[in-house]
Amino acid sequence: MNDWFEREKRVFIQFFNRYPLMIERGEGCWLYDAENKRFLDLVAGIACISVGHGNEYVNSRIKEQLDRLVHVSNLFYTRPQIELAEKLKTLTALDRFFFTNSGTESVEGALKIARKVTGKKRFVSFVNDFHGRTMGALSVTWKEKFRKPFEPLISPVEFAKFNSIESLEDAVDKDTTAVIVELIQGEAGVFPARRDFVKRIFELKDEFEFLVIFDEIQTGFGRVGEWFAKDIYGFQPDIITLAKSMGNGFPVGAIGISEEIHGGIESGDHGSTFGGNPLACTASLATIEYIEKKNLVENSRKMGERFRKGLEKLDFVREVRGHGLMIGVDVGDAKSLHEHLMKNGILVNATSERDIRIIPPLTISSDEVDFALRVMESWKSKENQ
Fold it and tell me: What is the mean pLDDT of the chain?
């Protein structure tokens, strides 16, 4: 494998630090490397693989569409695009949709829409929020490491403290275009918003007449034990951004808006060459249909609860956070645990020196959850030997 790693270094822009692992194929919740060693996948392509690797139903629908039509541009109508928009309207209770190729593109479009319909310029985001790496999305992403090399970014943007009502109140005013928020912060390590904090956002929205954008790119499509995190909190945004689990790994995203917002949109305000192509829309429709048929939102809720209860029993675990199969765990030494898990056939994502993130396919079984917990427990036992 070292030869392949060296080849990659000679031809690939080195934006990523990779683990020394060449993945060849996947099946269900498992990945297989070039030597056919299997790994329980608790990363799921960073919360993208919702219905399992190699899902026969989704793959057959993609292959069927591949033979029929891949791309014609948005100059023409296609049935999968209309059908997907109708399905999302039912699931989200928002009214209109535009399709993108990724989460960061969804955020870019949402920011443009907010400025257009309000006529205002100023955004409010939150400390530790992550919304993407393109210039607009990066502008509302907090982490200085991501932002600093590319300044000046889009402005004005103010970052309030997450879950601080006082900081929120200080940040918003009559010039605020929109408040954009992750209801459960993902990249930061899975930190849920407090209900009273979300409630206060909407009270201030009424007072200052700004829009609310929910970034549900990581939390959507059953990941949190509900179809969307907004269903946990009981609030409806003006704009929602979607991607990741939406297509089971196929690149597809969406922006959803209310009918009221749509009244301020004009032809030509935004666009995309590949966004909403028939192949991507078919992949998303098939993924959603499979989630519904197999009741995977409920499985996410049940398996997430099983995972969290098991993690709370482990002596080295200091805190467990999250909803459904979006779980953050403070383990003290994330790097050491990560290495132990990889050696023993489990892949996780370390979000900090202390924390790991568990975001497996929604198809994970109780046996697979229990296997992961046993291997995690053996890390502490090995340390004490």
Answer: 96
